[in-house]
Design goal:
Blueprint (H helix, E strand, L loop, with lengths): L3 E2 L5 E2 L3 H25 L7 H8 L3 H13 L3 E4 L2 E4 L1 H21 L1 H11 L3 E8 L2 E9 L13 E3 L4 H7 L4 H8 L14 H14 L2 E4 L6 E10 L2 E11 L7 H22 L4
Antiparallel strand pairs: 1-2, 3-4, 5-6, 5-10, 6-7, 8-9, 9-10
Helix pairs in contact: 1-3, 2-3, 5-9
Length: about 280
């Protein structure tokens, strides 16, 4: 690296920070890019060539980055292929606890209460994270219906009752920021028209809970209520039931589900430390 020129025209040698920052930032960026490739992979593992092609580096560089991440536990290896390592899960868990620790600490009892009384196949606790919901907790039956949700996972907010419940009680700029993007379609029933979605938010704000009919997972219906602080949603709880079997009493049962979700959300609010 060439040094900086002083006022008298002489060259000053670069300091350690000036000499090293570019290299450190470049290495850090590449390592993070490797982790992104692993997290996006449709398979459980990826090869060195795949990583090199994805992040645009030679295979030797990709191999060196993977080995470094493996040494620190962020990458694991199965034969000659690589996967996400245990340290990354520990880091993700720590991140969830650091930012949402209070919510996760008080939620289990209300979630179990909701699960037992609603006969749901699953109940969730989630927060908004950008245009997605981030799942903080989940209660389900051991051999229950498979749902596209997992603790630490994300799902488009506009496709979920959780997202609708929180957006119905969120500041307008936040809502507009999400609705200004194309609305994803998770199933054929997902709402992708802004006006229709806004009408749903208005209905949710009036009722105190939101409903999602097969918009995130076909065959299921979800009802969610926001956890409110000072009138704004800080989280939401939901219950999911199979659509089959609701029959003609669906509307009446939805009201019952909504009241249960609202009560569970209220229990969480009451258990949160005063702010």
């Amino acid at each position: 690296m060439i040094g900086l020129m002083e006022a008298d025209g002489t060259l000053r040698p670069p300091t350690g920070r000036e000499a090293g920052d570019g290299v450190v930032q470049s290495s850090a960026s590449k390592a993070l890019a490797v982790l992104e490739v692993l997290s996006r992979s449709q398979d459980a593992t990826v090869g060195v060539s795949e990583v090199a092609a994805e992040i645009g580096v030679p295979k030797s560089t990709a191999h060196r980055l993977l080995k470094t991440l493996e040494q620190h536990g962020f990458v694991g290896r199965t034969g000659i292929r690589y996967r996400v390592g245990g340290s990354l899960f520990e880091l993700a868990e720590a991140a969830l606890w650091s930012e949402y620790g209070e919510l996760r600490e008080v939620a289990p009892k209300p979630l179990n209460w909701l699960f037992e009384r609603s006969e749901a196949i699953a109940v969730h606790l989630a927060v908004l994270s950008g245009p997605s919901v981030l799942y903080l907790d989940k209660v389900t039956r051991p051999a229950g219906t498979r749902l596209p949700s997992r603790v630490g996972g994300r799902f488009p907010a506009t496709c979920t009752a959780l997202g609708k419940a929180m957006l119905a009680f969120s500041p307008p700029p936040l809502v507009h920021g999400i609705l200004d993007r194309p609305m994803p379609r998770a199933t054929p029933y997902s709402v992708v028209h802004r006006r229709q979605f806004v009408d749903q938010l208005r209905t949710a704000a009036q009722a105190g809970y939101a409903v999602e009919r097969e918009e995130s997972c076909q065959g299921t219906l979800c009802v969610a209520a926001p956890v409110l602080r000072h009138g704004k949603a800080v989280a939401a709880v939901s219950l999911c039931v199979p659509t089959r079997g609701l029959g003609r009493a669906a509307d009446q049962r939805l009201g019952s589900f909504g009241r249960l979700a609202v009560e569970a959300a209220g229990q969480i609010r009451e258990l949160l430390p005063a702010s």
